[in-house]
Predict the structure of HD domain-containing protein.
Amino acid sequence: MAQNIRESRPIPQNINEEYYQISGEILSSFPKYRPPVDLFSFREDISVLAPYCKKGVRLSNEQVDEVAALCAEGNLFVSRSDHPIYSRHIVKQLDLVLQDQNLKEAEIADICIRALLLRYGQFAEQPVKLVFEPLYRDVMVVTEYLWNDRHRCTIFMRRLFRKYSQPRHAINTMIVGLWLWLQGTGEIRRRDLDRMALAFLLHDVGMLKVPAFLTNKSGPLKTEEREKILPHPLVGIKLMQKMDVAFEELVRACFEHHERLDGSGYPQHLKGAQISRVGRITAIADSFSAMICDRPYGQSKDILAAAKELAGDARYDQEMTNRLLTAFAAGGIGPTVDMDAAVDAPETAAD
């Protein structure tokens, strides 16, 4: 019955311009009894929104059930004036950033990075296909956003993490890798963009199988400890093969990101032209991302200093490293944003 009423009285467009329609996934991310935003319900009988409750006010059990029912019917909304709070929850339904015309590009980049951090973190804890699928969907949202304007990748480049974790390293590598790939590529196909994003993001996925006491060790690794890490490129490929996503670009990124042009890399000691373009880009993006992040065994380098060091290292593709250096040295990337502070900031009581 309610479905028939909703179809006969569609939600007016002006409401969608001023309010967000809350999905069940976003609602579930709110504190159950104290919503962090003002809630509004859509009155189907008169086609208007009416205030339901104020942010931070405790709901009764009956109201909690009613809010859930309103949400399930598509009749629960939040004002766009609560965007700063709402944006921290929209990461649970990232495709909304493609629909919301009022979000600024910087806001969308922030939300996308937060979403990828959440999804990759979940995947890192449980690297199985069921948990991979939400990560895959969110990567496709990001590539759809970049597909519409490849220059938006620069906005993401301003938001590189400086504190290390496996998810943050993966996201940094994806951003830097995509930026390098887009800079050196003419016309692109959407399928290629999708695959490159996944390849860069998952290049180091084999490290998820390495014990944490090794990846977090502050001192030098013993020979037997290093031998446990060296196979991670192949481990990553096998892991993704189990999920039916081991396409060529991903295999190259996993297998070649530690290869070097002079043959000094591993696992195959490939040289020069033996290393694919995907492998060359991933090697630069992976190394750059590692250099600019604080690690248990060393402090981070300044972004410009890291770019200069790579540009002076003949083991990496010099055309690409010089492109990266020029962009940062000439100010082409623009001012950086402290993403670590943004994602690590605790929510206030009002939130």
Notes: The first strand starts at residue 19 and ends at 21. Residues 105-125 form the longest helix (21 residues).
